[in-house]
Amino acid sequence: MLNRLTKVVSVLVILTMLIPAVAMAAPPPQDDQTIVDIAVADGRFTTLVSALQVTGLVETLSGEGPFTVFAPTDDAFNKLPDGTLEALMADIPALTDVLTYHVVPGKVMAADVVNLTSADTVMGEPVSISVDGETVMINDSTVVIPDIEASNGVIHVIDTVLLPPAEEMMAEEAPMAEEEMMAPAVACDEDYSVQADDWLSKLADKFYGDPLAYPAIFEATNAAAEADSSYSTIANADLIEVGWKLCIPSVGDAQALLGGEMMAGEEAMMEEGAMEEEAMMGEGTTYVLVPKNLGNPYFDSGNLGAQEAAAELGVTVVYQGSSTPDATEEIQLLNSLIAQQVDGLAVSANDADALVPTGQAAMEAGIPVVSWDAAIAPAGRVLHINQATFEGIGRGQAQLGAELAGGEGQIAILSATSTAPNQNEWIKWMEEEWSKPEYANIELVATVYGDDEDEKSYNEALGLMKTYPDLKVIVSPTSVGIAAAGRAVQDADKVGQVLVTGLGLPNQLREYVKSGAIPAFQLWNVVDLGYLTIYALDAVASGQIEGNPGDTFEAGRLGTYTVGEEGEVLLGPPFTFDASNIDDFDF
User: Fold this and answer.
1) What's the rounded mean pLDDT across residues 183-200?
2) Would strands 286-290 and 499-502 be described as parallel, antiparallel, or unpaired?
3) How far is CA 401 from CA 341, 396, 423, 433, 516, in A?
4) Which residues sit opposite 247 in a β-bridge?
5) pTM (2 decimals)?
6) Secondary structure (DSSP) of 319-372
7) Which residue segments constitute the domains of the chain, with CATH numbers given?
8) Mean per-residue pLDDT for 443-453?
9) What is the percentage of the chain residues whose pLDDT exceeds 70?
10) pLDDT tens across 284-320, in order?
């Protein structure tokens, strides 16, 4: 089983590092970089990154290979019939089969593929191969980018997800299955009125002993509401209101609604292959590192440092988050982790104040909480691991933006979400800096929000350039936004006319720095931020410190750190990257 899981993680890591499908020719070989190195630098294959998290295999990151991967893009996943992707994400063994169906042992280049009629996959089922002129088909999928070489294999990008026979039948039946699920003959074993401190996973834990069984209450209540308007209709599983009438099905009916899955306990988690949850239920110390969202190269880099610290400390660090940067989804996840009694939480907050009650609930349950990158308000955590001071980052961004504008002209800000606490603080200090007399000729024309989503950030950047023809600089203090803005400037053929700066990763932005779209940007060492976060959390969890101002602790290779006011631990000052130094860094 372990060997198979190792292969699956290798497949998933390969899949997450792919270049965009718009390129029709293979890039130069990446023989000097491991698959993990390249994976960290590319955050646009979010579905595959989410699949990596859902399968619970993110920590293994092995895969010496070599492997040949037929890799579907996000667009390929979007072509699946309605309900198929959701069903796969909820069925760990099926998702594992699909992912391993895309990988063939050994390194098979395009020149070799065209001489084959089939290939045996790691999953065990063969794929068919056909060639028509220059078109290569894998089952019903077209190879759109061949021969993307890495140090441990080769990738051929495809435009359609390959489904093993069993999952292909499931995809064909998905619409019918969904209709059947919407109107089951389920009796309400108990009616329940929502209280002020309720959420669905908490109720699932109360009635079934498994917080992950909350979809049963969701489905049963909505089914009951169709026949009886006294029951509430739940549109969003994260949002229920006081006084709502819910339908609580029996354990048997709940199991039926969940597709016969067992609920509660370690046995269910093992059967589903949920290695992360199994680790959290087992012996040893387990911390959970929670990013704002998965599929974000910035947070993935932090996780590399967290895993380095975990290995040195002899603890397990699980990297778990939601697919979108949303506070309600983050709260739902944290409630589930609290119910599982993990040993510590390190959270990058999507909303500083909204997470306070959840953080307090964790600490009341004996689970220490620290925040990193984006702070939970002090009442909801013990420490905050800050990459640098808000003022230092904000003023630095403002100064760099004004310098790129030549001291005058229009500047716009492309931020993450409107509630992101770190971005909002940085923007406050940018505006403060630009209010100085020396920046009297700098005009801040707009602040827009891309919600840390690549496509939305890209479109917002295009919108800024269209709305403000004289725009000189876009400042984007978010790794997703700055890359999207750099790409937008290049695509709009405005390199040199509109300059982009902000906060980002060297590997992610190297091509834009060299093209001139992003002449300079700033950041701290994100790997070190994740590393320091786990050392700080362990210092609290092990009783070395209480988190009071003046407390000191050792953080491995980073040395000694001192806790400041309101529990702040400061990593250090930001660094400016430009064409003169960017090739000196690899993260």
Assistant:
1) 75
2) unpaired
3) 45, 9, 16, 11, 14
4) 191
5) 0.46
6) E---SS--HHHHHHHHHHHHHTT-SEEEE--SSTTTTHHHHHHHHHTT--EEEE
7) 2-172 (2.30.180.10), 183-257 (3.10.350), 280-388+527-568 (3.40.50.2300), 390-523 (3.40.50.2300)
8) 94
9) 79
10) 899 999 999 887 877 888 999 999 999 999 999 999 9
